[in-house]
Design brief:
alpha+beta; 8 helices; globular; binds N-oxalylglycine; binds manganese (II) ion; 2-oxoglutarate-dependent dioxygenase activity; oxidoreductase; EC 1.14.11.-; Alpha-ketoglutarate-dependent 2,4-dichlorophenoxyacetate dioxygenase; iron
Length: 286
Amino acid sequence: MTIDVHPQPSGFGAEITGLDLRTPMDQQTYDEVEAALARHGVIFFRNQPLDEAQQEAFIRWFGPPNALAKQLNNARMKNPYFYDVSNVDENGDIMMEDNERRLYLLANLYWHTDMSMRQPPARVTALNARVLPEIDPPDTEFADMRAAWEALPEARKQELESLRAVHSVYASRAKVGYTNFNDETRKLLPPSEHPLIRLHQASGRKHFYMGAHASHIVGMEEEQGRQLLEELVDFATQPQFRYVHKWQPYDLLVWDDSCTMHRATPYDDTQRRELRWCSARELEPV
Ligand code: OGA
Ligand code: MN
């Protein structure tokens, strides 16, 4: 099957039409989708009311999923690879103000890349919208880490190129005041170290790899490293590097976690919002 790719004017972000993902992809279709993702960083498919098995089958084309820490998820999610990105509790009611998962999810408001605390980290995420607020549904914003890197002067690139950053879920959650991790989670999620600048194999382009889980730089005084990361995130997420996704019900939004960052935006959370998240990891440590 031949798909149609409709890129944003900037080339960052593209809609793909011509596919119903309830039917499994074949190799050629996957190759075309992977090529569009490699080129545009973020792709989306409208009107894909997938069940978990269909969404899992989709993501497995891109790599094996990482099992999640149970503590951090909603008991509604039986599939170990799925995260319940919603404001709804185990009983299907809108979460109370003091619900721990609500606090935990607030960290998504910071620019981040999914699962960068893992080794190997996520490579591709797929997020399927089930229920959206009717009034002012929030956008999800993306920033192009390849374009941002390429916009730096050569001398600055050389200063940064060999740095490594430490990533942990404790760093991103500390930003929203969540510290209540149990032993099982601490064991599953030790901090990881990754290069600050990586090479995106499929496009041959280099890019930043950072975000809210990245707390400091290896071999640099912690506060200095934290400030450097903050400065680089501010630089790399300027409006000219962004794609802003306007959600419609049953969108399947798919992004490359290596060469993009993203963030949630605030909304009136007395209205239901329910999305299902799963990701495929890199095959090798990075
Ligand atoms: C995520 C995420 C953003 C949003 O699910 O990984 O960052 O808008 N979500 O919910
Ligand atoms: Mn995310």
